[in-house]
Amino acid sequence: MNNMSRRMDFLNGLINNLKEQNLYGELPVLSTDQKNRVVLNGREVLMMCSNNYLGFANHPRLRAAAKQAIDKWGLGTGAVRQIAGTMEIHNQLEEMLAEYKHTEASLVFVAGIAANRGTIQAIMGEEDVIISDELNHGSIIDGVRLTKSARKIYPHLDTDGLENALRETKDARRRLIVTDGVFSMDGDIAPLDRIVELAEEYDAMVMVDDAHGDGVLGKDGRGIVDHFGLEGRVDIDMGTLSKAFGCLGGYIAGRKELREYLINTARSFIFTTAHPPAVAAAAMEAIKMIRDEPRHLRQLWDNTRYFKKGMTELGFDIGHSSTPITPVMAGGSRSAVELSKGLFEEGLFAKPIVFPLVARDKARVRINLSAQHTRDDLNEALRIFEKAGKSMKLV
């Protein structure tokens, strides 16, 4: 064994720790495109945990737009956007996103985590305070940790707790309230209307991570800001192109000065190569599609209501979700892992979510509905859940 091998032996212990906590997993491998039924690890299964909400990830219109962009612009950009990576198509996408979100401007990042990390780090300093929901996404938590700002964590969805935090931080230079729009583990929605009221009363900024609301909530899928009728009252609207729009990337929408500042200060923007033009073209096509073809959004919500009703009638605990994210509560981590394995054996793929991602007694299998699911798909899923649930005495 050489010296490098000995130095890296500690990794085996870390891997074993992950296995003991039910946190270790191999990467599932698809042999098909992303759709309602896929071949995964060599087996055809119902895909029930993808973020492909509208079924756009493999849609012919997006494929065609991407191919045309490759013919015109090539494959890669070859540079970060500050040097030579910004093509006309990137600016066109950002203009379209701003118009879609009814904001002055937008800025696209390579991923949602980059948008959250880069924005929070850029605008908040050591004289400031960040006030965050306790169940915010890990990318928000990472962004907060990258700053020297003081922080206050308020109980999940608790606007009284938020108001207390605002009272306690009145002497800060700047305050930023940051929250998920739709919480990714539970599928519940932030009370953004009340959050904005409190922010205006106490002179604080509001940033919302709308990754799971984009393309899902509001008119034409404009997200949680539109859902609550708060246009022009949310300072920073973070969204994603990677979920409902079937592409890749995150973005920030807001005032033009915000975009101008982030271009020059957000490290996760400055030091990442620009999107391939094919991705930008496909994203623009997705925005056009959600306006041109509202049936996709209607189908998503029809499927969501049908599946939730069926699971409730079977006796499953599906939490308090009001979105396509549907947590099927299993109790402890081992139970969630066992449920996921049982579902896969019957032809349904859905990943377990376990501690420390959720509380020890709140492990679950998380279902994400899609507009691509047919009624036959959903009936089959309900049958499989019923069989697995009865065998584990969950129902």
What do the pLDDT scores average to?
95
> In whole angstroms, how far apart are the ends?
53 Å
**Percent of residues in β-strands:** 15-25%
CATH superfamily of the largest domain: Type I PLP-dependent aspartate aminotransferase-like (Major domain)
- Poorly predicted sequence stretches spanning 5 or more consecutive residues: none
Explain the layout of strands and helices.
Blueprint: H1 3-7, H2 10-20, E1 37-40, E2 43-47, H3 60-73, H4 81-85, H5 88-101, E3 105-109, H6 112-123, E4 129-133, H7 138-145, E5 150-154, H8 159-168, E6 175-180, H9 192-202, E7 205-209, H10 224-227, E8 236-240, E9 250-254, H11 256-265, H12 267-270, H13 277-292, H14 295-314, E10 325-331, H15 333-345, E11 348-349, E12 352-353, E13 363-368, H16 375-391
Parallel strand pairs: 2-11, 4-5, 4-6, 6-7, 7-8
Antiparallel strand pairs: 1-2, 3-9, 8-9, 10-13, 12-13
Helix pairs in contact: 3-13, 5-13, 6-7, 8-9, 14-16
Describe the protein.
- There is one protein chain.
- The strands form three sheets. A seven-stranded mixed sheet has the order 3-9-8-7-6-4-5, sandwiched between helices.
- Helix 14 packs parallel to helix 16.
- The protein folds into two domains: 60-292, Aspartate Aminotransferase, domain 2, CATH 3.40.640; 294-391, Aspartate Aminotransferase, domain 1, CATH 3.90.1150.
- The protein is an alpha/beta fold and 395 residues long.
- The chain has helices at 3-7, 10-20, 60-73, 81-85, 88-101, 112-123, 138-145, 159-168, 192-202, 224-227, 256-265, 267-270, 277-292, 295-314, 333-345, 375-391, and strands spanning 37-40, 43-47, 105-109, 129-133, 150-154, 175-180, 205-209, 236-240, 250-254, 325-331, 348-349, 352-353, 363-368.
